[in-house]
Amino acid sequence: MIVMKFGGSSIADAAGVRRAVGILRTQASERLVAVVSAHGRTTDLLEIQSRRALHGTHCVRELRQFHHQLVEDLGIPVPAHGPLFEELEGVLQRVAAERKLSHESRDLVLSFGERLSSHTVAAALRDRGLEAAALMAYDAGLTTDSRFGQARPLLQSDRGIRECLSGFPGIPVVTGFLGKDRAGRITTVGRNGSDFTAAVFARAMDAREIQIWTDVPGVMSADPRIVPAAQPLRRIPGVVAAELAHYGAQVLHPSTLEPAKDADIPIRVLHTLDPDEPGTVIDFSMSPEPGVVQAIVQQRARVLLHVGAPYLVPLEEVVARLSELCGDHHVNFDMTTVSEISATLAASDGNGHASDVESVVAQLREFADVSVRRDVAAVAVVGQRLGDDPAVVGKMFRVLTDQEISLHRISMGSDRSHIGLVVDESQVEVAVRALHAALLEKRTRPLARATSA
Predict the structure, then answer these.
(1) Model-level pTM?
(2) pLDDT at 339
(3) Other CB atoms within 10 A of residue 259 CB
(4) DSSP string over 421-435
């Protein structure tokens, strides 16, 4: 079995859906499971409407028109869309009436993107002569905890998925990104979480491979929008892939690697626009080589927090409370350094809401001394056993000094697979370009001063 995930940009329009169908057809001799994200910007538009509903100004006309045009361009009927839009209207009206958008309500609103796209892709497959049906992940057995916005599958999910798919006729087109808790409430696993869904289904079905189809030719050595010279990485160890995902490589959800690693299932990241390209293979059996830099990644919109313990209050109590608050508000933090009386960390909101970080800061100030530095970004040099090669570290800091990059925080992973930096937001692109040029590009002349644009 192969589990094939198609991202939102890959099925953003009728041409993309046709390409995805063509890719599935070429592998139809295999037993297949397709996992799909929402079409294009659908999730972003749902996010906007969920917030507008708080003020009673929501409108789903644009979403309706987009999906209507998509189906019209494909030339196929998708009757399931109508009832789904009626249900969405009802959910938004309830949010407007209550003037409250809970994490539970937000997850319910965001779920409609994948629920719509799964029906679109299944109908397109049937139109090309393949047996296929839309399958909601929760109907297939994906049961999660109740951490709305960052839900995690329960152990029982694997058995439920196996039981559902073992006799499923044709190709199931599964909704990425979402599940249901034990109370039957829709949950989501976090933005861009369809990769994670694909990995969970692959583990449950003991698939031989996971294919992540996206709009880039693999996992890249840097964001090509910042570094035009960025190249796809052909084969990387699982530990490197995990660091890249954590620090912002957008082709992989950070949680994707865990279920794939559990079952030792390789992941192949492939290019929808050029299916014959080899892409990137993530190999969990691959041994790391010391001092090998493989990518430079960045994460914008970070907040640097310095938390001091009040007099006679043990720092461990402050850190424990900090962890609890970040979990409650879905705020991610890393690059933590701890002394006897203070802790410093880089925080970001997993859902992209600045208000969630501000809520954590406000509550922290009730029992601790907190200073905040905004307008910073994280940059990570990712590779294998980087601390084993002093030359890598030395070159990195020379480059940053030459480019006059201000460093606010430095950290290294416990397995030495990354060196993390916190820099000014205004300098992040300069830092990424300079580090990539020095550590990953072969040069015959000295590094020129990097530019900010």
Answers:
(1) 0.85
(2) 61
(3) 22
(4) EEEEGGGHHHHHHHH
